[in-house]
Structures are given as structure tokens and as C-alpha cells.
Amino acid sequence: LQFLYFIDRANTKTMAEKIAILDAGAQYGKVIDRRVRELKVFSEIVPMSTSVAQLKKDGYTGIIISGGPGSVTADDAPAYDAKLFESGLPILGICYGMQLLNFHHKGTIEKKAQREDGQETIKVETDSLLFDGLDSAQPVLLTHGDSAGKVAPGFRTIATSGAIVAAIENAGQKLYGVQFHPEVDLTVNGKTILSNFLYKVCGFKGVFTAKSREQSCIDEIRKQVGDKKNVLCLVSGGVDSTVCTALLSKAIGPERVVAAHIDNGFMRHEESSKVAVALSGLGVTLKVFDCTEDFLSGTTECTEKGTKKRYTTKPLRDTVAPEEKRRIIGDTFMKVAEKITKSLNLNPADTFLAQGTLRPDLIESASSLASSKADAIKTHHNDTELVRELRKQGKVIEPLKDYHKDEVRELGMSLGLPKELVMRQPFPGPGLGVRLICAEEPFICENFNSVNKLLGELVSIETASPEVVQQVKDAFGDDLTPLKNSKLAATILPFKTVGVQGDGRTYSYLCSLSSNEKPDWERLFVFARLIPKVCHSINRVCFTFGKAVVGPIKSITQTLPREDALKQLRAADHAVNTLLIKHDLTTILSQVPVVSFPIDFDVAHSTEAKKQRTEDRRSIAIRTFITNDFMTGVPAVPGTPSMPLDVLEKMVEEVSKVPGVSRVVYDLTSKPPGTTEWE
């Protein structure tokens, strides 16, 4: 998308077409906003508690209620005006919004054994205006634990996912609810569904005008920086910071832009030298700073969730907690930037800090710039407490903060940046620091054995208990033929990965599937979709290459963010990326994180074998990811153009040669329930 929808707020009250997006804490709230504006209707995200009187006073003529991580039956459910549904305004409730719609009108909400966190095919009633022009079978993204039980009086069910109600309507009152997310890419015809609501239910015409997005960013930069001050831009070499640097150069001139590349010690193989070469054509002087020791010895201040007490973290080199690692790296970036400012003789009072923060970064960090209610999925290094404090002081420039990744690529092309730079694989600012899963002890909860037992029954459904069979039928349907005779072994691994389930963050188990047979990828993906639905303690499923892994596995390789573990990961990452580039897969795959995790499969059951090890052994995950919006996505299916089998087999072969690598696994998980990165 090449345009920013822009309008003077003072004149919006006179508009006849305005959508209010009531914020219940959705991770995808800004994506809803983006989709509505793409359809040429003005929209704003407003607090869930906004009164009907205020909504009408501000001229809103339609309402969308977002999803959210909470339950409508909870004591702390977001407050709302009870008069909302009697306002006469057309309303579309999404996920949490549908449940609120049903609950308010005396329907029931239940927490069922089955939860849904991924792309599913639902059946829709095509005589509903919401689904006008669509086929009855629709692939959609469902992410929820609660479900509608009894549908409220006056409403009818217009979509189902197995036995679960997926959409409801009261057409006479123009009230509609969908349990799925029409705003994301995984809902294939979601844009049509939103268009039907806006144009056929609300009766809008699409009068919202557009202005050049590039020029809007340039105007914003010039207004904030003024005529005299300089800008220090932290350049990682990735797409976002590079486009940000190019935009700054065009807005205020390259002579006022100081581009600093910080080597934090977590870079890829020869990454820093590649950054210098890639940016040399921008006309901006790039200065490279080796700050490895600053980061490894860095600490930061955090707040305990329960007690709200402040505490100082351990140094990064001794830290295992993912959130603490991200916060330390993010805050150290800011501290290092201050040191660089002084070393370059820049006056802090006359220097702004620029970074390529994107909308998804802010949404997943639960930043108030994106949403006042969203649950934090992960803290992004460019949205820590320190960064937020600098924002309050007006010292941070983030011209891309309303952009999504695909839009940044388009902007980069319009700025004249080379395609190979704009289309390169994204790499997180914290680098390999967040692709190295650290642990000092196994993660084993009370349900460890029961989850493993349930997994065993799922992959041997022929001998499963009647209770498990019924759970599977509720989630999968009555025909269990695709699950039978799987010849799979399944076990959970004793460490945590991050996921997003029901609009909230989860740190849960990873499930390893393996077999002594040649992998049946179609069947593996069936199990990968099923397992998180039935096993709520699992948010990620992988296939482990090599002989079948028989659980339980209850030991780990102690891992901290230090050079030995980083060296293994850097070599594995280089092997995978070399093959991606060689076979031109970087233009097909949106992102391919290569992750090190602390499991040595081959000594898991043998104390003697462990004693004989002369090196720390870990395993490597290949996490392919295909997406347009980077808020949702799917893994590449091996044997398709996005991941040819011979290329994958070569990747496994090359990574297995890296000293200290136990096994290689392939991530089968969509987003949700698994995030793009593992932590």
C-alpha cells in the first residue's frame, strides 16, 4: 500500500462515514484499522468504555468491537456502555466482540475442552449480507478459548467451525459477530467480509481520500526535527532501519543524518561488514561500533508483575529469561546510543534518536501508541520502558510506526533502494540473542506427564481412551481416518517457547513429532494443527529429523548467552541462509529464523552417554514463515516451491555437520498459536 489515509481531525465530525474500533485489547486492533482504511472508510481506535453519547457526538456511524485476551464473563472484563447495542449503529463484533454481543443479549459463553488457534475452514450461510458473494466453505483464522454456547434470542448462527459457533447475526438490528479474525491474511476472504459490513450493512460509499504516504512521513520528520537539529539513526542493516535512514536522508539531507551500526555481539556471520557495504550507496556516512562487551555486561531495571517491585537484572551473559534478555538488549541500545552521541561530538540537546519501529512491534509490545488494552506478546528491543520514556521527552523519531512490513518494502522501493536490500530476510534487532533459547534447568510443570500421555494417545488414536477420542472429534470432526496409523512418536520438550493464543501471550511446551518412517508432511501438518487445540499447554509443534524420539525427555543442556552457544548458532544460521540465497527462496519465504534450543536428544535417556560428551550439544530449529502482514502467517510446506525437499534435506545435512548440534527440527506451527520467533 503506497498511501497514508490522512485527514484533519477537526473536520472528521462532519464526515458521514466513520468507524469506531472499540479496543478490547486486540493484538490485531491496528490491523483492523488498516484494513478499514484500505477500504476507503475513515476509522479510529477508541477506548472500549467510550459512551454511546460520545460516539455519536464524534460522528461515528458504525462500530467494530475488537478481539481481546480476556473473557467477557471475567470480573475484570473491559467496561462498556450497556446502551451500545441499542444505539441503532451497525455493529460488527470480532472474536471477543462477538462473545460480548452474544453475552449482552442473554446468550451463553463457555470455556470448552477444544480451543482454536490457527487457520480452519468454517461453513458460512451465504444468504447473510456478511458473507454475500462467498462460497460456503471459508478458510479463516480462529484464536479463542471461550466460545458461544447458546446463541442469544433474536440472533441466528451464520457460520460454524465443527460444533463451535463461528458467526452470529441479528440482521434487523444490524448486529453481527464473528469468532474469527477477518482482518488478517489467514482469513482468505476477510477483506470481502469487512467490505460487506462497511458497504452492504453500514451503507457506506467509500469517500475517504488518500495522500502520499512517503510525503506524510517526510513532513512529519521535518516538523519534528526542525531546520537545525541532527538525527542519530541506529542501523541494524535490516529493511526497517535502512528505509528509515533513507527517509531521513531525503527529508532533512544526508549531512544531518548520522547512521550508526552497533555490533552487539549477536550478529550473523559477517553481518556487520555486509551492512557497511549495503548502506554505502545511500550517501549517508555509516559508522560501525563494536559494543559486544557493553551488551554482555549490560543490565536493566524491571518490575515484578505481582509485587510491582523494581529490581535490577543479572548481566546479560548470565540471563536466561526471554523478556529480561530483550529488555537488557533494548535498553543497552539506548545507553550505547548516548555514548556514541558523545563520541561523535553530537550535542544531545540538538540530536534526535531515530529507529525503524513498525506497527506490529508496538502492538506485540502492548504499546499505548498502538493499543491501550493489548496484552504484551513480547517486548521488542525498540519499545522498552527506556524507549517509552525517551518518547515522552520527544527525543525519538519513528516515521514508520504506522507501517507494516509489506508497506515498508513498498516505501523502500519508492525511495529507490535496491530490491535485494529491500527484500532481504528480516533479522531481529536483538539478533541471535533472541534465537538462542537459554535455560539453566528443565521446565517441568505438574501436568508434564499427563500432557505426554495425552500426546501419546493422539498419535495412536486407535487405542486412545473414549474421552480423548471425543475431544479429538470435537476439534477435528467425526472422520478420524487421517489420524490413524500415524507411526509417529510424540513428546513434549522441557523448555518454553512463546506463542499467542486467544490474543494473549503464552509460554508453553514445544511438542516434538518424529518417526522411523519417511516424513509424511501432509499428515504432520494435520497433527500440528490438531495438537494445540486439544493440548492447551502446547503452543508449538515440530518434526524432529533422525530416528524416532521416545519420551519423556527431562534433561537440558544448560545454556547462557555466551560465545560457545552463539558460535554454534551462528554457523547453523549461516548454513541455512547460504542455501536460501542459493536457491532464491528469500523472495518466497518472508522470514526463516534459525533457532538453537537446549536439548540433546541423543543423551536424553542415557546418563552414561552424557558423561562421555566432550562438548555441550544443542539442537537447531528451522522456522520458515510466509506472511504479508507479519501479524499472522504459515510455515512453508516441504515438497512445495516454497521449500523444495532437496533443499531442506541439504539444510539438515549441513546444519548437522556443525560441531555440537544434536538434531535438526522443522517448525510446523502457524502464527497463531506460535509466534514467528521462538522467544
Summarize this structure as a short list of keywords or feature phrases.
disordered N terminus, alpha/beta, 679 residues, single chain, nine-stranded mixed β-sheet, 30% helix, 19 helices
Q: Which strand order does the major sheet show?
A: 3-2-4-5-10-9-8-6-7
Describe the main β-sheet briefly: 9 strands, mixed
- Proportion of helical residues: 25-40%
Spans where pLDDT lies below 50 across 5 or more residues: 1-14, 366-372, 376-382
With helices defined by DSSP (H or I, 4 residues minimum), what is the helix count? Answer: 19
Class by alpha and beta content: alpha/beta
Strand proportion: 15-25%
Q: Radius of gyration in whole Å, from Cα?
A: 25 Å
Summed over residues and divided by their number, the pLDDT gives a mean of 86
Shape call: globular
End-to-end CA span: 30 Å
Number of strands: 24
Q: Outline of this structure?
A:
The protein has 679 residues and is α/β, with parallel strands linked by helices. Helix content is 30%, strand content 21%. It has 19 helices and 24 strands.
